[in-house]
Fold:
Amino acid sequence: MAEVLVTLQEIATATGRKADKVREECAALGVTVRDDWAGRPAVSVDDARGLASGSTRRAREHADEQARVKAACKQWVEDRKAAAMAGADAAEEKVKRGGVRSFLPGAFVRQGEVSPGEIHAARREGYQHAGAQFERRNRRPGPYVGLVFVDEGEEGSLMASAVGALRGPAKAQAPVREVA
Structure:
């Protein structure tokens, strides 16, 4: 059974445009232009309906916008991870430079060195704090990303960011060190 085709000239007449403009729109939207029985450029009935009503163009614009938002979300997640890792690295360097003596029971380190447990605790604290600060300073670009470190009330808030920078990580997450 042959498919019914609508010529570009008929679409142009119905929409008040020139056939060349309709052909350009078909190329831009990825609509397949074929020849009808008389050799005239034509499209399927469904494509013609979408071109005439504008729904094909709107659907393409919507798909492009969704792709842009998803790409922005992916970049935001990568930036958050990079910021959190940088915070963890900075916290580890700070602990190592400090030369804190380990008094943790069962820590096999020489006098004056930092135990692996203390390094892990410092990295975790730095990771969480830097991740929270990133989420406070940068709003999510779309609904496809979840918050990990803060709640929605703190997201993108300059005030919460300033308070978080002054306060630091929550006390419940701070590493515990015994001092003699």
Q: What stands out?
A: Helices lie at 8-15, 19-29, 45-53, 55-98, 116-137, 158-167. Residues 62 and 68 are 10 Å apart (CA to CA). Residues 169-180 have pLDDT under 50 and may be disordered.
